[in-house]
Amino acid sequence: MAFxxxxxxxGTQRQTWRSLLIAGFLGFCVSGTLPAVAVEDGPKAAADExxxxxxxxxxxxxxxxxPLSRLNVKPQDLGIAGAEIALKDxxxxxxxxxxKFTLDIERVPVGGDAVAALQKxxxxxxxxxxxxxxxxxxLRLSDSVKGQDVVLFNVSAPEVRLRQENCRANILHTxxxxxxxxxxxxxxxVWKKWQRWLVAKGDSPxxxxxxxxxxxxxxxxxxxxxxxxxxxxxxxxxxxDTGQQLIQLQMPVFTQGAPDYDVLIVADRRGIFGxxxxxxxxDPRPVAGTAGLEAMSWHPAHEQWGATQMQNRFxxxxxxxxxxxxxxxxxxxxxVGEAASRTQSGDYAPINAYIxxxxxxxxxxxxxxxxxxxxxxxxxxxxxxxxxxxxxSTSPQTGFLHEHEEVDTLGIDAPESKCKLQ
Amino acid sequence: xxxxxxxVFLIAAAWLGWSAVPAHAYTVYVSNxxxxxxxxxxxxxxxxxxxxxxxxxxxxIMLSKDDKTVLxxxxxxNTVQVLDVGTRQIVAELPSGPDPExxxxxxxxxxxxxxxxxxxLLTVIDLNTKEVLAEVEVGVEPEGVGVSPDGKxxxxxxETTNMAHFIDTxxxxxxDNVLVGTRPRFAEFTADGEQLWVSSEVAGTVSVxxxxxxxxxxxxxxxxxxxxxxxxxxxxxxVSKDGTxxxxxxxxxxxxxVxxxxxFEVEDYLLxxxxxxxxxxxxxxxxxxxxNGNSNDVSVIDVDRQKVTKSIPxxxxxxxxxxxxx
Lengths: 422, 326
Fold this sequence. Notes:
The complex is a heterodimer.
Chain A: E1 4-5, H1 14-27, E2 51-60, H2 80-97, E3 99-108, H3 114-123, E4 128-132, H4 135-144, E5 151-154, E6 171-173, H5 178-191, E7 196-201, H6 205-221, E8 224-230, H7 243-254, E9 263-267, E10 287-289, E11 294-296, H8 307-318, H9 324-343, H10 348-356, E12 371-372, E13 379-380, E14 383-386, E15 391-395
Parallel strand pairs in A: 2-3, 2-4, 4-5, 5-6, 7-8, 7-9, 9-10
Antiparallel strand pairs in A: 11-14, 12-13, 14-15
Helix pairs in contact in A: 2-9, 3-4, 5-6, 9-10
Chain B: H1 3-15, E1 27-32, E2 37-42, E3 48-53, E4 58-63, E5 69-74, E6 79-84, E7 89-94, E8 100-105, E9 112-116, E10 121-125, E11 132-137, E12 142-147, E13 153-158, E14 163-168, E15 174-179, E16 184-189, E17 195-200, E18 205-210, E19 216-221, E20 237-239, E21 245-249, E22 255-260, E23 266-271, E24 276-281, E25 287-292, E26 297-302, E27 307-313, E28 318-324
Antiparallel strand pairs in B: 1-2, 1-28, 2-3, 4-5, 5-6, 6-7, 8-9, 9-10, 10-11, 12-13, 13-14, 14-15, 16-17, 17-18, 18-19, 20-21, 21-22, 22-23, 24-25, 25-26, 26-27
């Protein structure tokens, strides 16, 4: 015979609940050995109504090609489901801290006005807003709320320039940038002693940005790019009845006659030809980069460091696998929740300060705490190296040393940063 | 070391009256998380006696108060298995709820308290009737379970909510919530019931909470020379019965910290195997066994000498450990 004890939060037990809040608050309201809690503000949590912490989510829809593999069709709620489950996590904790988090979603159609959507969120009291939008839209959004008490979480845009010359003080990035992803992959390949890279590159601007990151990583970690071979493409229909036979002939020819190399690196962020390369190269070589072995913040089969629980929880909730964007959104909402819990506040200033401060850390199923880099607002996190079915490794790799934290061997480190936060 | 050289070494050690041999033989049970088995070790000879297949992903394990059974959280089988130590057979499976990770037992022998990591619940099960007495809603990802020596309070830690929840064992109401460092994994009451020690894996700290006032009286930090701070990830905690020493398993720092439990000063860091998870004393408190998840062995620590005296191979990915008086 089972019964649920909801920890005294039903209406009839309001008095009990209130006393629990006070007890809970006093529980950590002691001397200087504590995690930083703004105790001088007094027991706000003991108020009758829970403190509300509204979080916004702005998603700018974009025109995208249908992926070559139907396994990679993006779920409609990609990212949003990650934010929603983090909201549930925050509110479970909120039961004990007297805080209630809400998530309000603004979905901007292709060609829609993202700035207006953000203004709507801000006008309705949202000071913490997750943004899933292309880099240029994100910058417009950032500029539109410059000087206001609003922080934007970039949950999707990986462009390095958003953390370098175009960095913004009001943006925190939970999405890893291309430099982190390339460094993470490079470390693994160098650890594996696959140091001679043949690069197959697409010709889009986003491929060029990825290629820049790959070139930088090769130089940093001692790999050699033996040749950069452009793939001339005219994106066509995703499938045709006889397409496979044709590709089987094209891909070996495309990779024929290369200098000696260990691994083929693909720079094709739109996924136009990269997914065709594994198992079709002229020489028997592994494929990595934007196809084959890839670097990512999260993988649906990642189960290290307690991630099994996160995956189970997410799958029960969303009825699909958890993807990198979901985890990036999860981290953003959890960061707000963690800061609100530690500061006992729902206000912008203490939460924003806590997230950016020295006391902040978050458990994100990555084997170590994740925190934000002070010099560019980028989330400092280990990166998963994975094939389609299973993670292969997690970077940073053993042996790549850093004077402070090894995870800072991934991406743009403080001394080389061009970011001037303003 | 080859088998014959090992034998010579052991004979020599025995002949020299090697102090690593306990006065009394106990039986040590180690759960192998990836091996789906228990490794059974004789605490005197330090030999593996047998390996027992159990449910999937066994983690937290504990001897029942009568020493007749081992309770095993078989996380992926969604049950707590009961192993008869005499026959070494699984004799019952308890309705633990999904993904049990750690458990603890009321001083009277029943009920047992199981943390259901996947469901934000603490499940209370009568060990005799095998019925669920209560399910208490707690924070996100409950894990560590501590029971006060007087049996009046059970504490569960929630890894994502970052709290130690104090629960009244009569009413099953949460009476206090204490915010601790990030990802709290283990809760251990001192034998006198005065303090609760909680390890925080991601924060890299141990919080000592006054069990009466429910206030944190000390946050213990660790610093291992040559190991980056980020790899100091405390999990298992044991405080000696006399309240003088505490031992904390530091995970990927591959060390067990030795702490003066009165002053809270860290006295030493003992090098053990890779990714040390949990700890268990022998009943005479002379030895401490530490499970090393990534090197597939347990380290044997001589408590008085504060030395690691031996490592014993186990199944794959040893996680939990408990020691029987027999």
